[in-house]
Amino acid sequence: MTDVALITGCSRGGIGDALAQEFYHKGVRVFASARDLSKMQHLKAMGLDTVQLDVTSEESIQNAVRYIEKESGGKLDYLVNNAGVGYLTPLLDADLALAKNLFDTNFWSVLAMVKAFSPTIIAAKGKIINIGAVTGVMTQPYWGINCSCKAALHMLGDTLRVELAPFDVQVVTVIAGTINTTFFENQAKYLNVPENSLYQSVQSQINYSASAEEWRPWTEPSDFAAGVVANALKKKPKAWYWHGTKTFITWLAVTFLPYGFLDFKWLHMSGLNTLRKKT
């Protein structure tokens, strides 16, 4: 019987899109999901199943559960939690309502999806793949909300891995490096440091943090997806799968370098050292 995968956040051009195509090319029946079906028309044309799904809506999740159970006969071998949004701001300038919304999308929705689809995943002795990031392992100034969210996601995956082991469900946490998507440009569109911000003088540095230029070189989504899917299809995949540009150097840094060195590096790379001189 053909394996079945559900992937969240499959809008065109993103990581989910690439993952959906890669699973499909490997012979897996793919249910690609996104809030806006119009952004997945190319996947539907290729032969993939597309599902409207807002991961922050319990009603939408339950609708997806019923639809996929009906279409797949209650079988789900891979649940790939990829949907996510970003929020770039110094922590002291953070709008807590926006920050909580980000956690709803990037963190709490993952637990909601796992809970909702657990019967079909357990029945299939399947795999849960959560797309984390290097920012959840090593922080970066102005990305504190994202970093905190991804760190929480990593811990969620570690706990699920142990708690679901008795049911023969495997959990993989993907530590993604920098991937060539529109993610960073999308953050710049909404970036606005308040006039009374303590960080007003480093506005240009904050803007640069949202630009694609800072994150080059990067891995193409198709290359990233190929590695993630290859690991997922293994009988015993790596529990933490690091893949993408800057993953190895991040691992080296957090494993061997002292916090003081890393703090010094970030103070100078982010322009925060100039604030210290002015006070």
What's the short story on this structure?
The protein is of the alpha/beta class and 279 residues long. The protein has 12 helices and 7 strands. The protein has one domain: NAD(P)-binding Rossmann-like Domain (Rossmann fold), CATH 3.40.50.
Short descriptors:
279 residues; seven-stranded parallel sheet; Rossmann fold; alpha/beta; acylglycerone-phosphate reductase (NADP+) activity; NAD(P)-bd_dom_sf; 7 strands; triacylglycerol lipase activity
Named CATH topology: Rossmann fold
Number of DSSP E strands: 7
Tell me the domain tally: 1
Work out the strand percent. Answer: 5-15%
- List the secondary-structure elements in sequence, H or E: EHEHEHEHEHEHHHHEHHH
Number of helices: 12
What is the name of the CATH class?
Alpha Beta
Helix content: 40-55%
Low-confidence stretches: none
Q: CATH architecture, please? A: 3-Layer(aba) Sandwich
Q: Name the shape in a single word.
A: globular
- The side-by-side strand order for the widest beta sheet comes to 3-2-1-4-5-6-7
CATH level-four homologous superfamily name: NAD(P)-binding Rossmann-like Domain
What number is the mean pLDDT? 93
Radius of gyration: 19 Å
> Describe the biggest sheet?
7 strands, parallel
Family: Belongs to the short-chain dehydrogenases/reductases (SDR) family.
Protein name: NAD(P)-binding protein
GO biological process, one term: triglyceride catabolic process
InterPro entries: NAD(P)-bd_dom_sf, SDR_fam
